[in-house]
Specification:
298 residues; alpha/beta; TIM Barrel; 41% helix; globular
Length: 298
């Protein structure tokens, strides 16, 4: 069981409206989304494209429902943009999150990413960094991590399908190179599983350096279809590669045990982008909430 005094449960709005494919869930409003999150029993959320851009307005709407922002995705382009430009965007988002009471910001390097390319098979053509690019990425992230730390925030890094940090070897190299006092891991069970990586050994190895967790399930049959039919990442999302914990094939029991054994403190967040027309977001939020409650006591 997880200690509810140390671990908080949230959910991402991407199950209601997809930021990368706005037609998915375009009918679902911001108010509906956060109301259903609260009704399903979640206490936190991440930030979606339909959320108000004004921190005060957003905080008021969330406070009314007893929900707190716990993180927001940050697209870094440290390999392809000047560092100063990336830092400026980072600080703007950092200040927004601080105003909302969040403690974590989740970055993912999007230079050369294939995740948004509709005609690019997700299992082919992934960019592989050379040594110089590795050094540039790590230096940039360490600098951003220092900015975050100086502002009372924590920088976590989101390994992700189609990006420069996807494979087990890339995750290991990343974790060897970053400053462990400045850059932490955002652990995502679904992206590891989609990439063909067993999430349990990864979490066991790096649990003490994990500061944010995405609970994402996968449907293995759909992953196999994605590979065989050369689907893009977004095509896989549309076809149901991802789902909520307890509805797919990821074995969460050992992951919860590791988090408990290592005294994890922070947020665990249900994040399962699907087509809302096929997977009603409120129904699936309730399904996830029930499963996690039964397995963790949260």
């Amino acid at each position: 069981m997880l200690d509810s005094k140390k671990v908080s449960l949230g959910i991402a709005p991407i199950g209601w409206t997809n930021d990368d494919m706005p037609d998915l869930g375009k009918e679902n409003t911001f108010q509906q989304c956060i109301s259903e999150m609260a009704l399903a029993g979640f206490k936190g959320c991440e930030v979606g494209s339909k959320y108000p851009k004004d921190a005060e307005e957003l905080k008021k709407a969330l406070d009314l429902r007893g929900i707190q922002v716990c993180n927001q995705w940050f697209s870094s382009f440290l390999l392809t943009k000047p560092y100063e430009e990336v830092e400026k965007e980072f600080v703007e988002q950092l200040n927004f999150l601080k105003a909302l009471g969040a403690k974590v910001i989740g970055a993912s390097e999007q230079s050369y990413s294939t995740q948004g390319k509709l005609d690019q098979p997700i299992f082919e053509g992934k960019y592989v960094m050379n040594d110089k690019e590795w050094d540039r990425l790590i230096d940039g992230l360490n600098r951003l991590g220092k900015v975050a730390k100086d502002n009372g925030m924590t920088l976590t890094y989101h390994h992700h399908m189609g990006t420069v940090v996807q494979t087990e070897e890339e995750i290991d190299r990343f974790m060897r190179m970053v400053d462990p006092e400045l850059v932490y891991l955002l652990f995502d069970s679904g992206h590891l599983s989609f990439a063909g990586i067993d999430p349990e050994p990864i979490l066991a190895k790096y649990a003490k350096r994990v500061k944010h967790v995405h609970l994402k399930d996968i449907r293995t049959a759909k992953v196999n279809e994605a590979r065989e039919n050369k689907w893009s990442f977004l095509k896989g999302v549309r076809e149901g590669v991802f789902t909520v914990p307890g509805d797919g094939d990821v074995n969460f029991a050992p992951l919860f045990r590791i988090l408990e054994a290592t005294n994890y403190e922070g947020w665990v967040v249900v994040e399962a982008e699907q087509d809302p027309a096929k997977a009603n977001p409120f129904e699936y939020a309730l399904k996830a909430r029930k499963y996690i409650s039964e397995k963790t006591g949260l």
